[in-house]
Amino acid sequence: MRSEAPTVAATSAPDRNFTLSLEERLRAYVQGVPSHIRRRRRIEDLEARLVGRLAEDAAADVTADLALLDDLIDRHNRYYPIEANLPVDLRTGRLVERGAPWRPLSPADVASLRARAARSR
Question: Tens of pLDDT along the chain (121 residues)?
Fold first, then answer.
């Protein structure tokens, strides 16, 4: 008896663990990047800029930018669960993000930014 090798589909499409319907693709194309992702990127960029400034000059005054950063973090914590459509654990009543309880971003402070700047030197 001759055993045949399993047939493998010849395709250039990569394996993926999700699919988007045509409606979801069109909605994503029209709406663009979700607000929570744009806001999170602004938070990360501003944090990196502040840490960079503090790494160059440890005595730099970053209070104005720190107020903007805290405002972005506050808005992110307020709207992210709604915009990302986070589910609620029915037993505990807590929001769930990727299988774990969601934790809001903590407000930025100069001490933590200075510590990050010191580590990056």
Answer: 555 555 555 666 666 666 778 888 888 889 888 899 999 999 999 999 999 999 998 888 888 899 999 999 999 999 999 999 999 999 999 999 999 999 999 999 999 999 998 888 7
Instruction: Say how many Å lie between the first and final Cα of the chain, rounded.
Output: 69
Please count the residues of the chain: 121
pTM (global) more than 0.85: no
CB 108 within 8 Å of CB 69:
yes
94 vs 97: CA distance, rounded Å: 10
Beta-sheet strands, E only, within 1-121: 96-97, 100-101
